[in-house]
Amino acid sequence: MKFRGKIIDPHCMKQFYSIVIILSKLCRNVVLRLSSTKLYLIASNESNSNQISVWSVLDQQAFFKDYDMIGETESNEILFSLPIDMLASSLSSAKQTNLKTLKMKLTDKLSPCLTIELDLESQVSSKQLCTHDIPVSVILPKDWSAYKEPTIPAHNISVVMPSIRVVRHIVDKMKRIGPRLIVSLDSSGKMVLGVSNLSATVDTHFIGLEIVSVHSSTDKENKYSTVVDIRKFSQFLNCETLNLSKILCHVVEGMLLHCSIEEDEYVLHYFLSGIDD
């Protein structure tokens, strides 16, 4: 079992760092699933380990200049978990303009580690190497089934989310009012974000949104809603750092808010289970 990868493109390094930063706000630990063509970043639901809350897939050819791995079993994969905050901290230099290469490899330093090597240009020397060793827990093949691609339930409605910066600003203010956010989408292209407490109810309406799909048996205007933890939704909205063209928002009535980012070189799905109102 071995893994070694190198990223040299500045945009890819910053993008990879941004994805890790987003995950660090959504979970404590992340599972890296490595295959010959893809790198997966997976997080389980903290309240239900049998459910996946984050499923992110990176195309290794789009990100890595060099990528070499030898996995286990016929599927030729490697799975291990690590603290996401340590990975984010070790990659912090990826946002600097003097970073030349970012290397990752599995090493054995008394215990298994993911070693991060950052090659920085320096004014005092031709090369400055910064190394971080992150302890990892190797996941045995018998436990891999918990980290297979999640089955996504059929959405009642999907729309393109409004400006992520505007939504984040509004939701951050709504957090002061109550802990639960009602997210409603209707087939006219309207999104309503609502929060309430004993003394006030506040709704924000976004209209004219692009409809991606609506699953309905009637021709009349349909509205679908789910109630979610406002703090967890707010944490996801930090994905603004990726400078995205669009984010899709999907609702399964009363059960699930699903946000997805689908770019050419990576996809990221965030699943936020509905809670009782």
TrEMBL record:
Intracellular or extracellular location(s): Nucleus
The record ties this protein, via InterPro entries, to:
DNA_clamp_sf, HUS1, HUS1/Mec3
SUPFAM superfamilies assigned to the protein according to its UniProt record, in alphabetical order? DNA clamp
Tell me the keywords, alphabetical order: Nucleus
Q: Which Pfam families match?
A: Hus1
Which residue ranges traverse the bilayer? none
List the Gene3D superfamilies hit by this protein, alphabetically.
3.70.10.10
GO BP terms: double-strand break repair via homologous recombination; meiotic DNA integrity checkpoint signaling; mitotic DNA replication checkpoint signaling; mitotic intra-S DNA damage checkpoint signaling; nucleotide-excision repair; telomere maintenance
Entry GO terms, CC: checkpoint clamp complex; nucleolus; site of double-strand break
Reply yes or no: does the keyword Nucleus apply. Answer: yes
Q: Family per UniProt?
A: Belongs to the HUS1 family.
Identification of the protein by name? Checkpoint protein
